[in-house]
């Protein structure tokens, strides 16, 4: 659904005419983001204070004599020489090649917020041995495995090296600024010292009596007439992080921008503040619904990452340069020979919290993903149905409507697994309720869906209607579970139901309370095949500055929302996830979709890119946005197929379905004001394209499922940029109009109208690529025009891979559990290929107890072998091998035989196409979860 | 959840046993009797391309034929069809992908045979339901059809009547038109002398008025000249003009030499004659604005400024709007005076004062009730009217001569006769158009929908009362009262080509906020009575009505003489 004043008004107007008319006058009706609703850096005091700093010598100095060491960590005092405020620097060595750098005030007046373990960090990170090599000329040297860290004392700087090659440096530009805790009364007196710290250039310090300079925005700020009381005064933290040797950095989603991040010299910094942005603009560093302060730098030798754990509003400036030797005079020692070393300088600053930076030293892409997953956790394997097709719309009007869609999809032979209900299904936007006149017997409706293996997702937003007859609200109110305003009363804001309050998801007891609401007893009219969608969880508050909580809103623990803003949405979906877990007594895998997210969200939610538009440019944008999300751990992500706003034409819808086949979360959605566009409503030409796309998605579900298994076990994203698979190919580092799904499928979606051919770059030296439909071959490291009529998605399987598919075209994924598998074996130029198949019960947590099968398939020397890597003691499956398509077989084999697990030998039929060199092996009939060999002679 | 547990628990009664299993009398599973003959022998030819495969590859759960014909009984071919026998009723085809997928699709359960799920035979029950539905429908159809026959008769009758009336009207019209032509000639004849006489009278009056105006202008010019000529040397020069702020063209607060010269038409000075002829026409508007006294005396009848003075404080700080309006305050246009005989009752200036608009055509639209200003203002205007009557006498055209009056009277008489005849012709044309429109209207192949025309039907749900007036419009109104919203006016029949009377489209209803105009799609169903049975809005601002009517009932098939197995 969507959300902004704008179309909020529309909805309201539908039901509450008078009110809507009033609002309609207040807000303009032009399409496009209302930029003025959101702060620019200039309108944000701390952003300005940090951004105005100039590179130079840092005021912060390490007092090396205070160094305290443990086996895995160090602790040392740091002094801000300008105001004598003391800090504590802690560095931990962590497993897998990660340094954690923490800088906190030594004697804070007030405790700064630190995110508890289990929220972003999945657990206390495991430490690893940090070896101290002594102090040489004020430089403390440490090593962690193959990686090194140098701490420069005066001024404070930390350099990180992989095998003695510098890859990252913290505070190299001297932009460290830690606004220490202070009392308001004393503020003025301190200005003398503090002012200097806060002022831009050193030359100003002496001249300006600081009293009036730094007051601006420190103790109170206003934006669009809203006043932010800022009782704690200035509390921001910031520091620069450089990546010498790297021209490209990626990540820090969510922004509607290119995958390779851009220099922010002439724009605002990339902003990170979870916001409900109506009709967001493309190619823009504005904040969107969720954020992950994780950045990856990549070059042809190394991949490294930085995770800045901070829940407050943040901004990141990025500049790509040739390494500046004057700033990096010390680093230059390490950079031998080449004077034109590219470098990316980044500058991170947050409104509150502490400096808590994890430096992930790779050195390969897959190492970085593993490292990041070791910190914030993995994407748990979704149930099979959740990666199938989702049919959504704001709104399916009533039970009849749901039944009609369900039946019509079947009539047109278009598979789907899930139908969704947006906010209109509730009684007056009171979540956990049903509009009785339209969904009078929801249980019956759910049962009907269930009879075809289908599920339903209903929306449950975190705002509670302030209605004394709404039990969830009165319960939360009387138990004192609601977020407070700055005066200590329950915060009252405007959202879909009108006047609303919000549970304080920061409190474990509130999350537990929320989770309990999903039991079948408490969520009346629900059933076990009902799952949940958390929207508006930034949170969205219509009548508040920047359409979210005022910053001085109070959580029950006493912290301001300012300190924790970006984790609120994640805690909402975590609690929902817990609720669904509880509902099945921890047996069934939940499904929750969320719009707001943070680092760690991947553990308990799928994410979609919010309210996009039905425009070609937005289709194109799905690739960079999802690559960024996948890079930052949000693997289960997708964009609304067709685009949420506007009425896309049928060609665009058809192309969007195609592109989404190989994007992780596969859901069509549309705004309430748009024309109906269920795939069967498209004109026949495009209906067929959409149906073929959906069926193709279903045929690749075994591959998708295995990729999600890989994601859970290794942290590898299922959707990958080309460089993740071809890390040393420097010419593809910026490429974001193509992507890889897993290691096998290269996709070039068509994102322009009326296009019938498209230029595809095929990466990889000596790599052969095969069209997934025609098996036509293309060799790597070349750009080639391929035909792409509207019926065709250009997608290619990499030679050397084996991909499992299911071809039976069932109505829903839940009906394919027993279906046989087709293996597509694409040979590399040496005639080899390998791949994996992962099987389990497709819906429960039994696999966590070992009840699954994982096999390794390899084709080598005309022999295809299926080796069992794991099979659960009691695990059985009916899935068998239906056919094997071997692509790139240059000579027709004379005969083919199978040797099964019991060493029985059996001849197999085949068909060989001399033109395409495709060999189809007929019906091996062996069980997928058994060892077998097929020989070609 | 479905019984997936079965899937796991089920014994391995896998396909192996059933694949080559044949059903009943020797034909492979999923094959209908009519196609059975293709599935005999030791080889099978794919039905569409003749590719030959061994018979044991039929129903072996592997798709060999591109057309899917080798796997009628399994799900192996995604494009195949499975035949449900549905004994003892008529069989039906389902998609192969529905075979052994854990859902009972055939009512006899024959599509689920791998042991994962056991399906009850529901054909009996299903058939009973279908029979009941068919019965009910048939009953409705019978009742409806009876009514429809009446509708048809009625429709034809109405059409006949209309046709008859039309030909009568056409005949009448011809006679009337002839008469009209005659009357027009009489009228034209009478109007010629009338016009001549009137024109003559008016020309004379115009000349008199022009002369008066000229005199007034000269007096005003002389007075202005005297005022401007501050040193009284009978010459006005630019330094004299520079003393008068109103000549400040660029509004910079002072009148520059250039500005003054501009008014003097680039001369150094001017005498009274030149001033009157050339300069006064250019400056009289701005000049008198600031010097109301002069104007008052000079232009008695054009009383804009004196009224300002009398009615309220003089406003040197007049608002921008007023300032903008003032140049128009004065009717210097001689035409205005002659044209506006009736107008003179209300001086233009007065109106401008109250109707604070700069409307260049104001002379023409000065009739009370002709605009939408407040009534209060109109009262004021009338008062002003009274007040200025004596002054306006002078401007009133003298009456026509008696001779002329007679001519006018004669012409009026001729016009009256003509107009009456013209009215009759128009009425008859209107009726003809109405009938023609009706006759053009598609009221069904047998005029059966004619009976619906002119009626309206309502349906009320939780929120709204929906109204359907066939061949006219569709609308909705909030149940609790409120404004009716037009959901579309009659557009056209909207059914598919082969059944166009299946539905209607109503279009161009009220616009939607940020969306299209509302429209409504009305589905017609057979029923014993005319009832609007449902209304919904499946897509924003696109409504759908369901309407049952006898007009949609076709003639029931004669009842079968023996009980057959109906198609399911």
UniProtKB/TrEMBL annotation, chain A:
Q: In which pathway does it act?
A: Glycan metabolism; N-glycan metabolism
Compositionally biased intervals (Acidic residues): 191-217
Q: Which UniProt keywords apply?
A: Endoplasmic reticulum, Glycoprotein, Glycosidase, Golgi apparatus, Hydrolase, Signal
Q: Which InterPro entries match?
A: Gal_mutarotase_sf_dom, GH, Glyco_hydro_31_AS, Glyco_hydro_31_C, Glyco_hydro_31_N_dom, Glyco_hydro_31_TIM, Glyco_hydro_b
Q: Which organism is it from?
A: Elysia crispata (lettuce slug)
**Gene Ontology biological-process entries:** carbohydrate metabolic process; N-glycan processing
Tell me a Gene Ontology molecular-function term this record carries.
Answer: Glc2Man9GlcNAc2 oligosaccharide glucosidase activity
Q: Which residues form the Glycoside hydrolase family 31 TIM barrel domain?
A: 379-707
Region Disordered: start and end of each range?
A: 182-217
Name the record gives this protein: Neutral alpha-glucosidase AB
Q: Which reaction does it catalyse?
A: N(4)-(alpha-D-Glc-(1->3)-alpha-D-Glc-(1->3)-alpha-D-Man-(1->2)-alpha-D-Man-(1->2)-alpha-D-Man-(1->3)-[alpha-D-Man-(1->2)-alpha-D-Man-(1->3)-[alpha-D-Man-(1->2)-alpha-D-Man-(1->6)]-alpha-D-Man-(1->6)]-beta-D-Man-(1->4)-beta-D-GlcNAc-(1->4)-beta-D-GlcNAc)-L-asparaginyl-[protein] + H2O = N(4)-(alpha-D-Glc-(1->3)-alpha-D-Man-(1->2)-alpha-D-Man-(1->2)-alpha-D-Man-(1->3)-[alpha-D-Man-(1->2)-alpha-D-Man-(1->3)-[alpha-D-Man-(1->2)-alpha-D-Man-(1->6)]-alpha-D-Man-(1->6)]-beta-D-Man-(1->4)-beta-D-GlcNAc-(1->4)-beta-D-GlcNAc)-L-asparaginyl-[protein] + beta-D-glucose; N(4)-(alpha-D-Glc-(1->3)-alpha-D-Man-(1->2)-alpha-D-Man-(1->2)-alpha-D-Man-(1->3)-[alpha-D-Man-(1->2)-alpha-D-Man-(1->3)-[alpha-D-Man-(1->2)-alpha-D-Man-(1->6)]-alpha-D-Man-(1->6)]-beta-D-Man-(1->4)-beta-D-GlcNAc-(1->4)-beta-D-GlcNAc)-L-asparaginyl-[protein] + H2O = N(4)-(alpha-D-Man-(1->2)-alpha-D-Man-(1->2)-alpha-D-Man-(1->3)-[alpha-D-Man-(1->2)-alpha-D-Man-(1->3)-[alpha-D-Man-(1->2)-alpha-D-Man-(1->6)]-alpha-D-Man-(1->6)]-beta-D-Man-(1->4)-beta-D-GlcNAc-(1->4)-beta-D-GlcNAc)-L-asparaginyl-[protein] (N-glucan mannose isomer 9A1,2,3B1,2,3) + beta-D-glucose
Which Gene3D superfamilies does the UniProt entry name for this protein?
A: Glycosidases, glycosyl hydrolase (family 31), Golgi alpha-mannosidase II
Q: Report domain Glycosyl hydrolase family 31 C-terminal positions.
A: 715-803
Any one of the GO CC terms: Golgi apparatus
Automatic annotation (TrEMBL), chain B:
Sorted alphabetically, the Gene Ontology BP terms of this entry are: N-glycan processing
Identify the Pfam families for this entry.
PRKCSH-like, PRKCSH_1
Q: Where is this region: Disordered?
A: 287-401
Q: Could you give a GO molecular-function term held by this entry?
A: calcium ion binding
Q: Which InterPro entries match?
A: EF-hand-dom_pair, EF_hand_dom, Gtb1-like, LDL_receptor-like_sf, LDrepeatLR_classA_rpt, Man6P_isomerase_rcpt-bd_dom_sf, MRH_dom, PRKCSH
An example Gene Ontology cellular component term from the record?
glucosidase II complex
Q: Which residues form a coiled coil?
A: 123-186, 411-438
Q: Where is the composition biased (Basic and acidic residues)?
A: 287-311, 379-401
Keyword list, A-Z:
Coiled coil, Disulfide bond, Endoplasmic reticulum, Signal
SUPFAM superfamilies the UniProt entry points to = EF-hand, LDL receptor-like module, Mannose 6-phosphate receptor domain
Q: Which SMART domains does the entry mention?
A: LDLa
Signal peptide interval? 1-24
Which ranges carry the EF-hand domain? 245-270
Q: Which residues cross the membrane?
A: none
Biased composition (Acidic residues) is annotated at 355-378
Question: Could you tell me what this protein is called?
Answer: Glucosidase 2 subunit beta
Annotated ranges, domain MRH: 454-555
């Amino acid at each position: 659904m969507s959300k902004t004043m704008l179309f909020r008004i529309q909805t309201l107007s539908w039901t509450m005419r008078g009110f809507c008319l009033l609002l309609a006058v207040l807000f303009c009706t032009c399409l496009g983001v209302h930029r003025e609703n959101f702060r620019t850096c200039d309108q944000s005091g701390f952003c300005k204070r940090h951004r105005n700093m100039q590179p130079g010598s840092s005021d912060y100095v390490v007092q090396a004599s205070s160094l305290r060491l443990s086996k895995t960590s160090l602790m040392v005092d740091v002094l801000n020489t300008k105001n004598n405020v003391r800090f504590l620097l802690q560095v931990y060595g962590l497993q897998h090649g990660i340094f954690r750098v923490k800088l906190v005030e030594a004697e804070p007046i007030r405790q700064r917020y630190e995110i508890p373990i289990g929220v972003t960090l999945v657990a206390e990170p495991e430490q690893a041995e940090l070896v101290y090599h002594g102090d040489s000329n004020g430089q403390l040297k440490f090593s962690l495995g193959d990686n090194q860290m140098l701490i420069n004392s005066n001024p404070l700087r930390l350099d990180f090296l992989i095998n003695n090659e510098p890859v990252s440096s913290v505070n190299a530009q001297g932009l460290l600024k830690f606004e220490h805790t202070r009392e308001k009364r004393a503020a003025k007196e301190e200005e003398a010292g503090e002012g200097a710290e806060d002022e831009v250039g050193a030359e100003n310090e002496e001249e300006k009596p600081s009293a009036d300079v730094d007051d601006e925005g420190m103790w109170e700020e206003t934006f669009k007439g809203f006043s932010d009381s800022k009782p704690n005064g200035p509390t921001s933290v910031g520091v620069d992080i450089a990546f010498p040797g790297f021209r490209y950095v990626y990540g820090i989603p969510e922004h509607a921008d290119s995958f390779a991040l851009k220099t922010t010299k002439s724009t605002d910094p990339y902003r990170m503040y979870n916001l409900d942005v109506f009709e967001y603009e493309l190619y823009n560093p504005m904040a969107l619904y969720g954020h992950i302060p994780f950045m990856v730098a990549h070059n042809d030798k190394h991949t490294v990452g930085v995770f800045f754990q901070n829940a407050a509003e943040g901004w990141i400036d990025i500049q790509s340069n040739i390494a500046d030797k004057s700033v990096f005079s010390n680093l230059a020692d390490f950079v031998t020979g080449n004077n034109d070393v590219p470098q990316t300088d980044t500058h991170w600053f947050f409104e509150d919290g502490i400096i808590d930076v994890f430096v992930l030293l790779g050195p390969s892409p897959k190492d970085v993903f593993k490292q990041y997953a070791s910190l914030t956790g993995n994407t748990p394997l979704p149930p099979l149905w959740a990666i199938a097709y989702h049919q959504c719309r704001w709104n399916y009007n009533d039970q009849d409507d749901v039944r009609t869609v369900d039946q019509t999809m079947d009539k047109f032979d278009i598979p789907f697994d899930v139908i969704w209900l947006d906010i209109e299904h509730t009684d007056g936007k009171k979540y956990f309720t049903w509009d009785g006149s339209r969904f009078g017997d929801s249980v019956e409706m759910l049962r009907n869906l269930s009879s075809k293996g289908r599920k339903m997702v209903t929306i449950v937003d975190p705002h509670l209607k302030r209605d004394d007859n709404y039990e969830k609200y009165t319960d939360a109110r009387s138990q004192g579970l609601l977020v407070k305003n700055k005066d200590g009363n329950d915060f009252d804001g405007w959202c879909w139901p009108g006047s609303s309050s919000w549970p304080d998801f920061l409190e474990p007891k509130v999350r537990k309370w929320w989770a309990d609401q999903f039991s079948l007893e408490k969520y009346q009219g629900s059933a076990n095949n009902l799952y949940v969608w958390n929207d508006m969880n930034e949170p969205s508050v219509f009548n508040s500055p920047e359409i979210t909580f005022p910053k001085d809103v109070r959580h029950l623990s006493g912290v301001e929302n300012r300190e924790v803003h970006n984790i609120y949405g994640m805690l909402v979906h975590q609690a929902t996830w817990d609720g669904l877990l509880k509902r099945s007594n921890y047996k069934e895998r939940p499904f929750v979709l969320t719009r707001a997210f943070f680092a760690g969200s991947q553990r308990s939610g799928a994410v979609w890119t919010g309210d996009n538009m039905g425009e070609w440019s937005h289709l194109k944008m799905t690739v960079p946005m999802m690559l960024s999300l996948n890079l930052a751990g949000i693997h289960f992500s997708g964009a609304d197929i067709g685009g949420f706003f506007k009425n896309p034409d049928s060609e665009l819808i058809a192309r969007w379905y195609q592109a989404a086949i190989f994007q992780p979360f596969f859901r069509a959605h549309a705004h309430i004001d748009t024309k109906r566009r269920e795939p069967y409503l498209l004109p026949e030409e495009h209906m067929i394209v959409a149906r073929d796309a959906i069926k193709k998605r279903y045929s690749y579900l075994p591959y998708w499922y295995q990729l999600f298994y890989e994601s859970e076990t290794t942290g590898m994203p299922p959707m990958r940029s080309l460089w993740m698979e071809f890390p040393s190919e420097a010419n593809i580092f910026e490429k974001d109009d193509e992507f890889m799904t897993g290691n096998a499928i290269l996709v070039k979606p068509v994102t322009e109208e009326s296009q019938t051919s498209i230029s595809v770059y095929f990466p990889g030296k000596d790599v052969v690529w095969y069209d997934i439909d025609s098996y036509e071959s293309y060799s790597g490291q070349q750009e080639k025009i391929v035909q792409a009529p509207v019926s065709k998605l250009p997608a290619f399987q990499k030679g050397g891979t084996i991909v499992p598919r299911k071809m039976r075209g069932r109505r829903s994924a839940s009906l394919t559990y027993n279906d046989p598998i087709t293996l597509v074996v694409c040979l590399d130029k040496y005639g080899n290929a390998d791949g994996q198949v992962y099987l389990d019960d497709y819906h429960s947590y039994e696999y966590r107890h070992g009840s699954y099968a994982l096999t390794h398939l390899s084709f080598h020397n005309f022999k295809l072998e299926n080796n069992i890597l794991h099979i659960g003691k009691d695990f059985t499956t009916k899935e068998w091998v239906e056919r094997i398509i071997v692509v790139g077989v240059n000579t027709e084999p004379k005969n083919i035989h199978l040797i099964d697990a019991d060493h029985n030998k059996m001849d197999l039929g085949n068909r060989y196409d001399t033109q395409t060199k495709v060999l189809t092996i007929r019906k091996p009939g062996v069980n997928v979860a058994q060892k077998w060999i097929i020989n070609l002679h | 959840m479905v019984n997936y547990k079965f899937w796991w628990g089920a014994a391995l009664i896998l396909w192996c046993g059933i694949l080559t299993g044949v059903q009943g009398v020797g034909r492979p599973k999923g094959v209908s009797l009519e196609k059975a003959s293709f599935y005999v022998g030791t080889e099978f030819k794919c039905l569409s391309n003749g590719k030959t495969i061994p018979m044991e590859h039929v129903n072996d759960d592997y798709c060999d034929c591109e057309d899917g014909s080798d796997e009628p009984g399994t799900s192996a071919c995604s494009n195949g069809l499975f035949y449900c026998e549905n004994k003892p009723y008529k069989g039906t085809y389902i998609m192969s992908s529905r075979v052994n997928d854990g859902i009972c699709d055939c009512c006899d359960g024959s599509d689920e045979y791998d042991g994962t799920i056991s399906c009850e035979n529901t054909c009996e029950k299903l058939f009973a339901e279908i029979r009941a539905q068919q019965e009910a429908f048939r009953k409705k159809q019978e009742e409806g059809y009876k009514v429809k026959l009446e509708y048809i008769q009625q429709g034809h009758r109405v059409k006949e009547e209309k046709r008859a009336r039309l030909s009568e009207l056409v005949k009448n019209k011809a006679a009337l038109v002839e008469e009209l032509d005659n009357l027009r000639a009489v009228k034209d004849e009478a109007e010629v002398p009338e016009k001549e006489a009137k024109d003559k009278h008016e020309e004379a009056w115009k000349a008199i008025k022009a002369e008066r105006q000229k005199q007034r202008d000269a007096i005003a010019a002389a007075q202005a000249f005297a005022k401007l000529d501050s040193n009284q040397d009978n010459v006005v020069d630019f330094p004299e003009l520079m003393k008068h702020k109103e000549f400040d063209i660029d509004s910079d607060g002072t009148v520059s030499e250039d500005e003054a010269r501009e008014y003097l038409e680039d001369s150094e000075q001017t005498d009274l004659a030149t001033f009157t002829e050339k300069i006064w026409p250019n400056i009289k508007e701005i000049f008198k604005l600031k010097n109301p006294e002069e104007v008052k005396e000079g232009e008695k009848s054009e009383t804009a400024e004196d009224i300002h003075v009398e009615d309220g404080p003089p406003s040197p700080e007049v608002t921008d709007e007023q300032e903008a309006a003032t140049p128009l305050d004065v009717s210097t246009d001689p035409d205005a005076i002659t044209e506006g005989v009736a107008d003179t009752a209300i001086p233009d200036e007065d109106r401008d004062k109250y109707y604070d608009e700069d409307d260049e055509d104001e002379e023409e639209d000065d009739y009370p009730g002709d605009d939408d200003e407040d009534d209060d203002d109109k009262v004021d205007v009338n008062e002003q009217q009274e007040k200025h009557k004596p002054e306006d006498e002078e401007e009133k055209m003298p009456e026509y001569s008696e001779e002329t009056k007679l001519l006018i009277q004669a012409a009026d008489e001729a016009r009256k006769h003509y107009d009456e005849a013209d009215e009759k012709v128009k009425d008859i044309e209107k009726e003809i158009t109405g009938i023609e429109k009706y006759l053009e209207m598609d009221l069904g192949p047998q005029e059966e929908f004619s009976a619906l025309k002119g009626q309206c039907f309502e349906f009320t749900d939780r929120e709204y009362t929906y109204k359907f007036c066939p061949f006219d419009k569709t609308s909705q109104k909030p149940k609790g009262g409120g404004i009716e919203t037009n959901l579309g006016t009659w557009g056209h029949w909207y059914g598919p080509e082969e059944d166009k009377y299946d539905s209607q489209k109503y279009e161009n209803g009220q616009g939607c906020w940020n969306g299209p105009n509302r429209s409504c799609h009305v589905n017609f169903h057979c029923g014993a009575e005319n009832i609007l049975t449902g209304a919904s809005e499946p897509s924003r601002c696109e409504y759908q009505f369901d309407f049952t009517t006898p007009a949609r009932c076709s003639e029931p098939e004669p009842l079968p003489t023996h009980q057959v197995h109906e198609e399911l």
